[in-house]
Design a protein that fits this description.
6 strands, six-stranded mixed sheet
């Protein structure tokens, strides 16, 4: 897996995890990092998603990590655990994590577990 971009200019990195149908497009522009996820977030992809998002978050110039779910069709509880871990790290580092583009299944799971209220959410995708 390649490293997330570290410069202040806009750069994009695309990752396909474990040859699965899950993909991450990562873009950084100044202090804002965006991880656009697509496919299914499951027990198969979550173990690689967590360190990738944490590396983005821990980059010195990333103050806001936006996780875009507009192309995520499924998420299971392992994916929720990753989001909670990344949120906890963001708060510990004094940074922000924002979710955007939540579709039916991911939104339902976050709402039904009561976790959605913990996250900053933007309506734009």
């Amino acid at each position: 897996m390649s490293r997330p971009p570290r410069s202040s200019t806009t750069r994009t990195v695309t990752e396909q995890l474990n040859g699965s149908d899950f993909k991450i497009d990562c873009e950084q522009n100044g202090t804002e990092c965006r991880a656009k996820l697509s496919g299914k977030i499951s027990i198969d992809s979550s173990p690689e998603l967590r360190p990738f998002l944490l590396r983005l978050l821990m980059a010195g110039n990333c103050q806001l990590l936006i996780v875009d779910f507009s192309e995520v069709v499924y998420i299971d509880t392992s994916g929720l655990a990753v989001l909670v871990q990344v949120l906890k790290s963001a708060r510990h580092l004094g940074k922000r994590l924002r979710l955007t583009g939540l579709r039916e299944r991911p939104r339902y799971l976050l709402e039904s577990t009561g976790l959605l209220r913990l996250f900053d959410e933007a309506d734009d995708a």
